[in-house]
Amino acid sequence: MENKRINGNDLIALGFKENHTLGVALKINSKRHGYTREEMLEKFRSVLEDPMSYSEDAVFGILSSAMLGQDAVDKSLIVLNETPVDYAIYGASEIETGAKAQMNVAMKLPVAVAGALMPDAHQGYGLPIGGVLATSNAVIPYGVGVDIGCRMALSIFDLPASFLEENVMLLKDVILRNSKFGAGNGYLRHERVDHGVLDNKLFTENSLLSSLKDKAWTQLGSSGGGNHFVEFGVVEFEEKDEVLNIERGTYLGLLTHSGSRGMGATIAAHYTKLAKSLCKLPYQAENLAYLDLDTHEGQEYWLAMNLAGDYASACHEVIHEKITVALGAELLAKVENHHNFAWKETWNGQEVIVHRKGATPAAKGVMGIIPGSMATPGFLVRGKGESNAIQSASHGAGRLMSRTQAIKTFSAHDLKEMLTDKGITLLGAGMDEAPMAYKDIHAVMASQKDLVDVVAKFSPKIVRMADDGSREE
């Protein structure tokens, strides 16, 4: 009991309300300040009973101040709706309680119109990862996410699957020479490539973006950390796809996953802070602060977000072009899709802003890619346009456990054995990305049969990820 951390429920049991003061108390508790758990709880109880007597206290003075000023703060807060707007949940039995709780809060926002939870959903900041939220004329920076425009791209070549088996060393070399990984990493000046996205006038009109242009150029065509990857694999079509005009068979494929790198992360941090200063929400909804699209700030973020999305697309374009040239292969088809983005769409006859934080667009006929893990298949899909899902699907298998828990749980031997068994060559990556840390992709796909049709299966064979322990930017 002594080592058990004090959490929000413990403080609520003492009498704290779910507002800003609860957050202040939890921040104080994170340092413990030499007190035992029981001593800390007693201090919190005492401050709650008589905050004035702690106004000069070195540790609890900030809590005293927050409590004494809370009445004034509460009057300026935007009021949440008492009950959440109804929303659809796909694969509910496999989704953690925390993700559902976050979605419930999001659906109480006064701007919330509709929502859905995808079967790969898990807890995030503000909107859960795997959460889809339609709002009325408002955009939520944390509803988009930190890695703005994080993207999947699949190139299918006119080479048979046997080419991969016969040329493993060549393909390893191609990936290593034409990709770069890790948070903060980029290319030296003589290695950089040019792209039209860098000519966007926003780089001169917006001072924040202007300061980020050189970093954007440095990182153009590179990938971040965490679950971002570049991989060769086998693309299997069980029947001819008339739209793509690809015959039944197996082909060499290149699949990439990364986003807007440092530029996107900086945009997200800047406009989230701005949104929180302009949109005062109750404590439990603070990370869902939104910007009205009729305001200068809302339009500024919207333009910056779209630029970050274009930049993420350009990064994939550079990687795929380099590798296609290196292979000397003919491209049969290329499919791409964003997740971590917001779109203006029509839902039930109403124009809305659809946030897909870790969700794939799946309007009728729209193609997307839903990856599994480094050792499990991904799927090329075509959307069915399901209205209850706000025309969305999952963006992957979804994490089964945190990165820290995965590192503590699995061994390098277990991972190596699994990869060897499946004939997969891994370049980089840490135990936090072990396939066992992810949900069963087949169960996830079974939960969204009403949302997408499977067009082809992608089985990874040569996988490159960051090896510096860095996470997505």
Automatic annotation (TrEMBL):
It catalyses: a 3'-end 3'-phospho-ribonucleotide-RNA + a 5'-end dephospho-ribonucleoside-RNA + GTP = a ribonucleotidyl-ribonucleotide-RNA + GMP + diphosphate. Its EC number is 6.5.1.8. Keywords: GTP-binding, Ligase, Manganese, Metal-binding, Nucleotide-binding, RNA repair. Its cofactor is Mn(2+). It holds the Pfam family RtcB. SUPFAM superfamilies: Hypothetical protein PH1602. It is an enzyme of class 6 (ligase). Coiled coil: none annotated. It comes from the Bacteria. GO terms for molecular function: RNA ligase (GTP) activity. InterPro entries: RtcB, RtcB-like, RtcB-like_sf. Signal peptide: none annotated. This is 3'-phosphate/5'-hydroxy nucleic acid ligase. It comes from Sphingobacterium zeae. The lineage of its organism: Bacteria, Pseudomonadati, Bacteroidota, Sphingobacteriia, Sphingobacteriales.
